[in-house]
Amino acid sequence: MLNILFGTFSFSQQSLKLIDQKIQLEGNISFTLKIPAGYKISVAAEGLYRPRFFAKSPDGRLFVTDMYDKTDNTKGKIFILDGWDNKTRQFTDVITYMKDLHNPNQVGFYSNGTQSFIYIAETHQLSYYPYNNGDNKPSGTAKIIATFPDYGLSYKYGGWHLTRSFAFNKNKIYVSVGSSCDACIEKEEIRATITEMNPLDGNDKQIIARGLRNAVGLKWINNELWATNMGRDNRGPDKPEEQLMKIERNAFYGWPYYYQYKKQVLADPDFKDSVHPAWVKRPPISKWGIKAHSAPLGFDYFKGFKDPVLNNSFITALHGSTSVWRQRGNAVVQMMPNGTYREIITGFLQGKTEDKRFGRPCDVIQWDDRSFFISDDKNGVIYYIYKEK
C-alpha cells in the first residue's frame, strides 16, 4: 500500500478489482454493473423522475431534489427518503416534502445555533424555510435571499444552465450560477460565477470566482471550496477537459477565453480578438482534468471510511455526454493522487445508442463509514453501495 499526501489530503493508493452485479429495475429493465470487490449494491428507491442532489437533514434523514425532466419546468419536487430497512437495503417511504418547484437542483441545511433551516436552489431563486426535526413539509413561510436569471440561449445554440448549487462555510453561503450559453461573452455579471453571501438575509454579496462555465458540484472539504466544472462544446472530441478543482477567492478559471487540456492552458481561438475584462488572466491548472463531455456533477470526499482504498479521496459522479456515441462519463470515479481517475462503478453505458444507457449518475453522498448513495437521474433510481463486513 502506498500512502500519498496531496495538500491537506492523504490518499491510500491500492489496486481495485471490479466485479459484476446484476441490477433489476421496474419496467423489466435488467443490466449488469461493475462495482468494487467486497461491496454490494441495492436499489434503495426507484420510481422517481429526475433525482439530483442529496442532503442529510439535522435529524439524520436523506433528502433529494427531483427536477422532473430535462425541460425548463415547474414540476420539480423535494423528496424525503425515509423508513430505511436494513434487511432489504431499501427505503420504505418516499415522502414529497415540496412540489411545483422550478428545476430544484439542490437542497441543504443550515443552523444559526438555535434554529435549523432548509434551503432550496431553483433556477430563478435561492430560498429557505425553518426546519424542525421530523418535518414532512415546510414550516413557516419562505424567505428568498437571492434571485437569478432564468433565461438563456436555446439548446440549438449550445444550451444554457438551469441548475443552481450552493455550499455553506463559516456562516456564509456560496452559490454557483452557470453560463447562459455554450461559449459567449456574458452581459450579466452573475453568469459563470460563484457568489458569497450571508445565509439568512443574502446581504454582503461578493463574486469570489469567475470563468466557471457550469460548476454544478460545489462543496467545502477540509476548509477548502471544491467544484466540478464542465467545459464548452465544439472544440473537438477531447477539448476542453472538464475539471474537479479547488476554488480560490478572486480567481478566474478561464471560460470563455481559455480552457485546459493535458495540463496546459490554451487560449480559445474564438475569443482571441475579444476585449478582455480587467479580471481576466490565465487560469490555474486544475489538479484533475476529466475527459471532455464526461459531465462531472456531484462529488463527496470520503472521510473516516473503513475501506482504505476509498478513504480520504474524492468520489465523483460523471453524468455522461448527451451524445451517447461519445462514450464518455456515465460512471462513478475515484480521483487519484497523480491527477488521474479510475472507475469504481461502471456499466451504466453499454452501447452507442440511448437504449443502451442504463443510468446517468448525478450525485454521491457518503452515508456512514461503510456505505454511500448515488442518484441516477435517467431512470429515477437511488442506489445504495455498501461494504460487506
Task: Name the helicity range.
Answer: under 10%
* Shape assignment: globular
Oligomer: single chain
Identify the CATH class: Mainly Beta
Brief overview:
This protein is mainly beta and 389 residues long. The protein has strands at residues 2-6, 9-13, 18-25, 29-36, 39-45, 51-56, 62-66, 76-85, 90-101, 106-111, 116-121, 125-131, 143-147, 164-169, 172-177, 193-197, 206-210, 218-221, 224-229, 242-247, 251-252, 258-261, 264-267, 288-290, 296-302, 313-318, 331-335, 341-345, 361-366, 371-376, 381-387.
Q: What can you see in these coordinates?
A:
- By secondary structure, the protein is mostly beta strands.
- It has one domain: 6 Propeller (Neuraminidase), CATH 2.120.10.
- The protein is built from no helices and 31 strands.
- The strands form nine sheets. Strands 14-15-16-17-21 form a five-stranded mixed beta sheet, with no helix packed on it.
- Strand 22 and strand 23 form a beta hairpin.
- The radius of gyration is 20 Å and the shape is globular.
- The chain starts with a strand and ends with a strand.
